[in-house]
Structure formats: C-alpha cells, structure tokens
From TrEMBL:
Name under which the protein is recorded: Acetylglutamate kinase
Annotated positions binding substrate: 66-67, 88, 185
Enzymatic class: transferase
SUPFAM superfamilies, per the entry: Carbamate kinase-like
Pfam families: AA_kinase
Main location: cytoplasm
Lineage: Bacteria, Pseudomonadati, Spirochaetota, Spirochaetia, Spirochaetales
Chain ranges of the Aspartate/glutamate/uridylate kinase domain: 27-267
Gene Ontology cellular component list: cytoplasm
Alphabetical GO biological process terms: L-arginine biosynthetic process via ornithine
Catalytic reactions on record: N-acetyl-L-glutamate + ATP = N-acetyl-L-glutamyl 5-phosphate + ADP
Subcellular location: Cytoplasm
Family to which the UniProt record says this protein belongs: Belongs to the acetylglutamate kinase family. ArgB subfamily.
A GO molecular-function annotation: ATP binding
Amino acid sequence: MTEMDNETWAEVLSEALPYFKQYVGRTVVVKYGGNAMLNEELKTAVMHDIVLLNTIGIRVVLVHGGGPEINAMLEKLGKKTEFINGLRYTDGDTMDVVQMVLTGKLNKEIVKLLLQCGGSAVGLSGVDSGLLRARKMEKNGVDLGFVGEVMEVRPEILESLLSQGFIPVVSTVAMGCAGDPSCYNINADTAAAEIAVALKAEKFIQLTNVPGVLRDVNNPDTLIKQIAREAVPSMIATGMISSGMIPKIECCLEALKGGVSRTHVIDGRVPHSLLIEMFSDRGIGTMIV
C-alpha cells in the first residue's frame, strides 16, 4: 500500500468533513448481500467500516441475506435447492434451514464480527418485537411455499436500539400477519428497502457482488454512476438494467417512493466501498436519485 503524504491526508479529511456533518445523527440502512459476504477479509473490512460510521454518530442498521450459506446447508442435508422465477421455493423443511442459518449461525457471526471490531451490535430477526409482518407470496400464480412479502414494518425495536448507540443486525425472517401462525422467508433486498422507508432513512445502500449498473455487463469501466428514477423503466425495456439487477433497482425505487433521500448499489468486494460512497465526492457504484 502506497503511503500518503501529509498534504494528501489533509485533502482526504477535508473532503470527508462535510459528509460527516451531513450524516451524523441520520439513519443509514445497509443491505449486505449473501454473495458479497463470502470473503472473510472483505467481510471484516465491511464490519470495520460500519463500526466507524456508528462511532461518529451515524445510525446504521445492517440487514443481511444469506443465500449461499442456505444453499450450502441444504446441500449438507441432502436437500435439493429449487428456484422459481428467481425465488427460492421454501417448503417446511427448507424454512427450518432458513431460520437456522439466517437467524442463528449467520446473524450471530456478523454480530460477533462487529463486536470484535469495537462496535456494539444486537442481532434480531423480523420476528423479534414483530418487526416484520408478511403474507404468503404467490408469483404469477405459482405457490412458493413459505415465501412472504412484507405487509408491515414495526420499527420501534430498531429505534430503541439506535437511540442507545447499538447497531441492529437484522435477518429477514418475518412473522405472518394477524391470525397467521407461520413464519416466512423474505427477500433481503425488499426487506431492507421497507425498513429504510419505515425508519425514514437518509440513505439505503445495497452492498452486492457487482460494480453497479453497467452499460456493458462485461466491462466494469462502463459503470453508470447516477440514474434518475424516471429513466429506469426505459433502461429495463432496453436491457441495460437486466437479470438480477432489476429487483435491486426496483427496491431502490420503492425506497425513494417511500421518502428515502438517496439509494445506492455498490460493490461490496471493493475494500471500504462503504466509506468511499459515504465520505467522498467521487463515490462508488450506482446511485438512483
């Protein structure tokens, strides 16, 4: 690593200072994608970044997925993973595994990492305090099992933790709505966007395993840094936004519609991408405004 001289350090800090002032006391919801969590060194760097944000007074909520870990556990158990229209078919046995991996193993691993990095973190799921309420989802008339769509967010537990300086770490398993005793597997991007709206967040950031929206999917140098939300439908129609990027951008649109000021899709594989996005003029990834 090249050592910066004093003048460069001063420039970096001077550039970051206005952003410190802008975001202190504000809420930022970070969705940490399953595929962006596979490298342990990068995972630790992300946790350091989140602790830094929390330390200077930014209220951070971390919402995580865990698709690769769920797949690995299902494979160990000899159970086939089935996807329908890009969503995991979740029967009763699969739902048990989802809860075990997301709310148990993975959630507590993230909390432990945050604690080791000097933060104060609390792990919870959408079931805790009735944070997320969902109903059974059917996609194009197809039964997906225990896959749900969020109908209600009760953010009081998050507000309480944030007011005490904690970093809430949320796994996306939800309770059924009144009268429904089931629990549901919720898409983590969607849940994070809904939580951002409920908390009136200043920013909603999705950390994923792609650079952002690219004009040419095979060339990371064609990154589109900013997109007006009015341009999104035509970009989907022409295929510039396609495949797995469509639901991520749609979640950004939902967050914007709900009052979130800024939404971003950034590359969690880039060390300290979160800090670059938050505290520099150049930013990183794609911003939807």
